[in-house]
Write a structure and sequence with these properties.
The complex is a heterodimer of chains A (221) and B (156). Chain A is mainly alpha-helical and 221 residues long. Chain A is built from 6 helices and no strands. Among the domains of chain B are: 62 residues; 42 residues, no CATH class. The radius of gyration of chain B is 25 Å and the shape is elongated. Classes of the chains: A mainly alpha (221), B mainly alpha (156). At the A-B interface, helix 1, helix 2, helix 3 and helix 6 of A face helix 1, helix 2, helix 3 and helix 4 of B.
């Protein structure tokens, strides 16, 4: 076991090694693997909605194309850029956590949270516009401009997919707020203690990953 | 022992110091690909527009997974989890699509281009949409307005 050279728990910044792990490296590996398993269940959760999308787009291609033209492409593009940039700052937070620069970690997570908030505000404007137009799911659909079979199904999928995604944005923001305060108060993220930052950041990247697929499928038909 | 070796390899890769330039480059490529997908999406290519959009999205997703989520540094089990997850997503997509593509025609959703039945919620010439909120489910033949002849929209 050459890898058990780490003596964990000696300094305050270093996480404790649980008794059932051979070394800190194995413990970190297990934490990452657990996160990947959790993220794969998240991907499969969203995949269910992508299946709905695939089935109904196959059945109603013209209606889906027509309905997607009624989304605001410029707001959707701005939101994509905002989310990709927030992913960059989350990745930079992990980078600075490895170097032990805790104030930069807090700043990067602060920027990520601010961009997440901007994403939700823009999404809120889009939603309120859809509510006014009557572009609502299923039997509540009352938009006179497009009267085609399948259009209410498009808006059902639109609201379910973007709503579930927005819910994940809120969860991700809460995790990042917690990590930001941890970096500000405890100031002990460093080369041997950055697993929390890394896993929180991974969750945020998943939110970005889902949006990368939702954006072309909903806005660019 | 192999777990310990894999973990120490992963720890080594993650510890290895590299500059933050890598993240900025990935960010730039992601923005460029976003611009590309908006451009190709807005010219509405009928034959391969969807395939192109999915290809660009997969390239972007791959960059996020490999560099932002560090899958390029992680080994073995982590990659296996992700590969299996992608495989399951593809299986979940292929099976219902195969069902829809091979269905007995009257079993397809009414009003779609795969069906000869009209969607009774959208009969041609029907103007008022205000008292539809209490109407039946889509494609159900129960809420048919009496006596109204419904022309098939997509089949002459």
């Amino acid at each position: 076991m050459q890898s058990s050279a780490h003596t964990a728990g000696a300094t305050p910044g270093v996480p404790r090694l649980a008794a059932h792990f051979a070394s800190l490296e194995v413990q970190n590996h297990a934490a990452r693997l657990g996160m990947w398993l959790f993220l794969s269940t998240e991907i499969l959760l969203f995949a269910g909605l992508f299946v709905c999308y695939g089935v109904y787009r196959y059945a109603y291609p013209e209606a889906f194309a027509e309905a997607s033209r009624h989304l605001d492409l410029s707001l959707g593009t701005v939101n994509t850029v905002v989310l990709i940039t927030s992913s960059l700052t989350a990745a930079l937070a992990v980078h600075y956590a490895k170097e032990g620069k805790n104030s930069l970690v807090a700043i990067m997570f602060g920027l990520t949270i601010a961009m997440a908030g901007a994403f939700l505000v823009i999404k809120g404007f889009e939603y309120s516009h859809k509510f006014e137009e009557g572009a609502l799911p299923g039997p509540y659909y009352t938009m006179e401009a497009v009267q085609l079979p399948g259009v209410p199904l498009y808006f059902t999928i639109y609201f379910l997919a973007t709503g579930l995604h927005a819910f994940h944005v809120i969860i991700g923001m809460s995790v990042l707020v917690w990590l930001m305060f941890k970096a500000m108060r405890e100031k002990n993220f460093g080369p041997n203690n950055y697993t929390a930052v890394e896993l929180g950041s991974m969750y945020w990247h998943l939110v970005d990953l889902v949006w990368i697929f939702l954006f072309p499928l909903l806005y660019l038909i | 022992m192999s777990v310990a070796n894999e973990s120490s390899q992963e720890a080594h890769n993650m510890q290895e110091h590299h500059s933050s330039v890598r993240y900025w480059v990935v960010w730039g490529v992601l923005l460029a690909l976003t611009g590309l997908t908006v451009w190709t999406g807005s010219i509405h290519i009928p034959q391969f527009g969807l395939a192109l959009a999915l290809l660009i999205a997969s390239a972007k997703g791959g960059l996020v997974l490999l560099f932002f989520m560090h899958l390029v540094d992680h080994k073995g089990a982590n990659r296996l989890v992700m590969a299996v997850s992608v495989l399951f997503v593809l299986m979940m997509l292929i099976m219902p699509m195969a069902d829809l593509a091979t269905r007995y025609r009257p079993a397809n959703p009414a009003g779609s281009h795969l069906s000869d039945l009209p969607d009774l919620e959208f009969i041609e010439g029907k103007k008022s949409t205000h008292n539809r909120a209490g109407g039946g489910a889509h494609g159900s033949g129960q809420a048919a307005p009496g006596g109204q002849q419904a022309p098939s929209p997509s089949h002459p």
